[in-house]
Amino acid sequence: MKKVWIYKRTGIKGWWVGWYESGKRKAKALPTRKLAEHYCQLKYSQLNSDVFTGIVTIGWKQMVEEYRESKKVQGVTEATLYETALTLRHFERLIGKCSSKQIAQNSIDKFILERGQEVKRSTLNKDIRNLRTFINWCRENRYLNNGAIRIKELKEDERPVKSLDMSQIRKLLSMTESEPRNYMRILLALGTGLRRGDIENIKISDIDFVKNCITTNSKKTKKAMASRPVPYDIIKELKRYVDSLPKEQEFLFTNTFSYKKWKTVCNRIQLQGLKFHDLRKTFASVLAQSGVSTAVTQRLLEHSSSALTNKIYTNVDPVLRQSVNQLPAEQWLRK
């Protein structure tokens, strides 16, 4: 039996987990004792996997808590953990607090069927993905049989991507020109593709007016881009806006984004139902229509897959129209 132990280092914050592997001593630092104890348990099971070969029965509450702590150790964001926790709460509400022994294909199918009557298919697929991640973790920790449960996402009807054309963009900018802060928010969304939350977190010190770029850190994906390029004309507008701010101001925006004002502006220019996030989709669509590759657009949007970029964010209808217009239809009809 291989041993795993927890210890502290003098003058260093946090806790350490130590073990021997392949004749070498190894260690990992954790911020709290609770996380260290959990990692110690996982490492012990991993090192002695040749000894523990059976399936372990465990209660629902303990299973959910262990899953959360395990994912914390792996660096999963709080937002992702919260989404998974919501899915598991819905599972508990509809199916009950199942032990690992009670989780079977019929309980998964029942959850998908009943949850599908409450939400749209896109939301249901998000729950299915979260549940599949949880089930796979249970398999890895020998709480479930390998291959005993199969979970597959449902097909969704394709929805057209909502993006603005040139005239709509001009109307939107013209309507907000008298409100410099909202005007700059819209310009940055259209010119960089940033999410609204990331725009709100931009500091004045993050902007490089010489290189025409911004340093950004995504709250959602935890990804950073040291030199995110910004169009020259937008940088000029940004410089004019920054020069009008108090010198001691740290963040680019100090006021809270008003959904009420946004809705009023959209209604005035006949764009009912437009979301601020649709500006991000407009950014991606304009790049696609200009011939920019999906790989570049994916990098700028900080997406994990090109499929997400193409399916949800890119409106290529104008490109399709341009392509069809190149057909020699006039020559076909010439008599």
Write a concise keyword list for the protein shown above.
335 residues; mainly alpha; hpI Integrase, Chain A; three-stranded antiparallel β-sheet; 15 helices
> How much of the polypeptide forms β-strand, as a percent range?
5-15%
Poorly predicted runs of 5 or more residues: none
- CATH topology of the largest domain: the name is hpI Integrase, Chain A
Distance between the first and last residues' Cα: 89 Å
CATH superfamily of the largest domain: Intergrase catalytic core
CATH architecture of the largest domain: Orthogonal Bundle
Major sheet description:
3 strands, antiparallel
Q: What count of helical segments does DSSP give?
A: 15
Account of the protein in words:
With 335 residues, the protein is mainly alpha-helical. It has 2 domains: 4-140, no CATH class; 166-322, hpI Integrase, Chain A (Orthogonal Bundle), CATH 1.10.443.10. It has 15 helices and 6 strands. A 3-stranded antiparallel beta sheet has the order 1-2-3, with helices on one face. β2 (15-21) and β3 form a beta hairpin. α2 (60-73) runs antiparallel to α3 (78-94) and α7 runs antiparallel to α9. The chain is globular. The relative contact order is 0.07. The model has no long low-confidence stretch (mean pLDDT 86).
